[in-house]
Specification:
By secondary structure, the protein is an all-alpha fold. The protein has helices at 6-11, 17-21, 23-27, 44-73, 77-101, 106-113, 125-133, 139-143, 150-160, 164-174, 181-184, 196-208, 210-241, 253-258, 266-270. Bound molecules: protoporphyrin IX containing FE (HEM).
Length: 275
């Protein structure tokens, strides 16, 4: 069948930049809540745009994480590395974007903060999905979302899926490394704990297997990149709201500081002192 038939062209208008990217819909989604004497507070637009941009990057990251996991399952380490490189580049852009928000002073933020009610990045289901893929899972995080909602359905699915680390360990086993059964069949819901047996394997791998050592290095980059985001976010929070409580109900910066410095893949850090 000829999809390019003139009849078909007459019926459906040609695709344009605006129709393909749904520009009108996209541009209608920034709706400030503040009402000053001359309209919404100036900086609220930046706050909305930057959060929406983050959510789009989160969406893209999840899309790429699913691909990396699939490529490892298909024993395609080079392509997995290539995708990890893309993920790391996105993460760098995400960290750099915090600079823009840091141009907003505490008083500028206060001009509309009370209009946020309980809204906070703490409630971002896509951020929690990313954490789940990377092995930071919490049943409590799922329960915050309404039964049957998109967020809850996605979180429930990812909660029970193997993490990126699980996919990596199973890949290593297929590459001939003696990954213990207890690790290959570990409960994918549990946190990734350090394993002396896996560390022994990784030490050998780093010394003799350049291809897979490169893959490990990209996972370390990813781990470091996520920690970098958390560090930069908490610094931004400290300079914008100091020690005040968060709109999401937490202790604010004090809560966020507790999430810094916890590695996603502890074995990859532990072996540094053994090499
Ligand atoms: C002025 C800017 C910002 C301030 C003052 C701020 C403040 C906070 C605070 C206080 C928390 C702790 C939870 C709470 O009680 O609310 C938090 C969590 C969080 N924020 Fe922000 N935030 C800002 C910008 C952003 C941006 C641009 C993003 C990007 C999406 C973001 C994403 C997150 C995420 C994902 C969490 C949860 C972190 C976790 O639980 O480990 N925040 N934020």
């Amino acid at each position: 069948m000829n999809h390019q038939s003139p009849i078909n062209n007459q019926q459906s208008p040609a695709v344009t930049y605006a129709s393909y990217l749904k520009i009108d819909e996209l541009l209608s989604l920034q709706q400030p809540r503040s009402t000053g004497p001359t309209g919404p507070e100036h900086d609220e637009m930046l706050f909305i745009v930057i959060h929406q941009v983050y959510e789009l990057w989160f969406k893209e990251l999840l899309h790429e994480f699913d691909r990396v996991r699939r490529l490892l399952e298909d024993d395609e380490p080079h392509r997995a590395q290539h995708t990890l490189k893309r993920i790391l580049t996105i993460l760098k852009v995400m960290v750099a974007q915090l600079d823009i928000l840091e141009t907003m002073t505490p008083l500028e933020f206060l001009s509309f903060r009370q209009r946020l009610d309980a809204a906070s990045g703490f409630q971002s289901d896509q951020f929690r999905q990313i954490e789940f893929v990377l092995g930071v899972k919490s049943a409590g995080a799922i329960e915050r979302f309404a039964d049957g909602s998109r967020a809850r359905t996605e979180l429930e699915r990812r909660y029970h899926e193997p993490t990126l680390w699980d996919a990596f360990l199973r890949y290593l086993a297929r590459e001939g490394y003696a990954v213990p059964k207890s690790q290959l069949e570990r409960d994918v819901v549990a946190p990734v704990e350090p394993s002396p047996e896996v560390e022994q394997i990784l030490v050998t791998l780093y010394r003799r297997d350049a291809k897979n050592a490169e893959l490990c290095e990209r996972l370390v980059d990813l781990d470091e990149g996520m920690q970098e985001w958390r560090y930069r976010h908490v610094k931004m929070v400290e300079r914008t709201i100091g020690a005040k409580r968060g709109t999401g109900g937490s202790a604010g910066a004090a809560y966020l500081r507790e999430t810094i410095g916890r590695p996603l893949f502890p074995d990859l850090w532990e072996i540094r002192s053994q090499l």
